Amino acid sequence: MFIPEWDDQYSVHNGHIDKQHQQLFKLAKQAAILIHKQVDSNEIKAILMELFDYMKFHFRDEEAYMEKIGYPNLPAHREIHKDMIERVTDLIQNIKYDFKQKLAIITRDWLVEHIMKEDMKIERWYEEYKNAQSLEGGADADAIAQAKMEIGHFYKCDCRESFRVLETIHQKILSGQAYHCKKCNAKISFVQDMQL
């Protein structure tokens, strides 16, 4: 199983999150080495536990970052994190059966599907958001984004009691445009503004 080296192309341009991703690349590389060696289940279990603990720590920080920047796909991304934690938990609990194959799948999914695809969506969205904000007001994009993050506009739908929407979406709703939840298809409704 090929595990790529960390590269700046995988950066989300947040130093804290990038350092954690680099550590996860290292752990995945260690796991890949074990997959191709004759090792006992205790060695596999040790790397799994290290990967599992670090994933939980990283997911918490990454979700806080997404919340801070108002990432609109946070609920779906959080579900991906939850699913990955459940899969690793299952692997650890059933270490006797196909553990190398399962470890290879999780390691590949983590790097290829998650960091290189899902996490890069955060970066692309944030860059587009900052660019749109610059075009709207002509001011510094980071300053605009920071200012607009200070007040959170919270909405609800049938499947979620509360989630935050971007300022631009909030303004469109105030002007009469309707938005529907992508998951349950219900019309979203305003809950409250909250100082963050």
Evaluate the radius of gyration.
20 Å
The top-level CATH class of the largest domain is Mainly Alpha
- Would you identify the CATH architecture of the largest domain? Up-down Bundle
Oligomer state equals single chain
Q: Count the strands?
A: 3
Q: Using the alpha-carbon principal axes, give the shape.
A: elongated
Class based on secondary structure composition and strand pairing: mainly alpha
Biggest β-sheet description: 3 strands, antiparallel
CATH superfamily caption of the largest domain:
Hemerythrin-like
- Low-confidence region ranges: none
Number of helices: 6
Major sheet: arrangement of strands: 2-1-3
What is the mean predicted local confidence, pLDDT? Answer: 80
Work out the count of structural domains: 2
**Approximate helicity band:** 55-70%
Which H/E pattern describes the elements? HHHHHEEHE
First-residue to last-residue Cα separation: 44 Å
Q: What is the third-level CATH name, the topology of the largest domain? A: Four Helix Bundle (Hemerythrin (Met), subunit A)
The percent range for strand residues is: 5-15%
Describe this structure as you would to a colleague:
The chain starts with 14 loop residues before the first helix and ends with a strand. The protein has 6 helices and 3 strands; from the N terminus they run αααααββαβ. A 3-stranded antiparallel beta sheet has the order 2-1-3. The model has no long low-confidence stretch (mean pLDDT about 80). The radius of gyration is 20 Å and the shape is elongated. With about 200 residues, the protein is mostly helical. Helix 1 runs antiparallel to helix 2 (about 40-70) and helix 1 packs antiparallel against helix 4 (about 100-135). Helix content is about 65%, strand content about 10%. The protein has 2 domains: about 15-135, Hemerythrin-like (Four Helix Bundle (Hemerythrin (Met), subunit A), Up-down Bundle), CATH 1.20.120; about 150-195, no CATH class.
